[in-house]
Structures are given as C-alpha cells and as structure tokens.
Amino acid sequence: MEEYQRKLLEAVIEGGILMILAYLFYYQNYLLYTWYRGLPLPSRIPFIIAGILTGVAYLLYKLYKIYPEIQKHKIAKVLREEKIEGI
After folding, report:
1. 70 vs 8: CA distance, rounded Å
2. pTM score of the predicted model
3. CA distance 40 to 85
C-alpha cells in the first residue's frame, strides 16, 4: 500500500468519525438550547444531514491536500515505466 493510499484511508476514517461526532454535537446543542421537558423530540434528519455535510467538507479538504502527492506518485510511476522501456 502506497503512502498516499494510507493517507486517503486515514482521511476516510477520520471523516466518518467526524460525521458521527458532528451529528451528535449539533443535535445535543439543539436540545440543550431550544428543547423543553414535555415536548416531543425534534426530527433528527436535519442534524444527520448537517453531520454528513461536515464530514464531506472535511474529506474534500483532506483530498485537496493529498491530491498533489497522488499526482507526483503517478508522474513518478510513468517516468519509471518509460525509463524501463527505453533500456
């Protein structure tokens, strides 16, 4: 497994954890500040969507940071193959 692949896998795992934690954070804060005893619990769907969007934003940020390394790896691989063919 290449270094950039490890970084991608790490980013995906971090993004998944961040999605769950963001959902829990948003829902908990909503309940703490606007929900009162005796009222029915609000829908969780908006908070799930907010958590997913937070995780996706994090993944896009990490991919933006890892993308140059992926390109360098692909270029190096092509150069190695051309060098072998030239021999």
Report:
1. 10
2. 0.76
3. 70
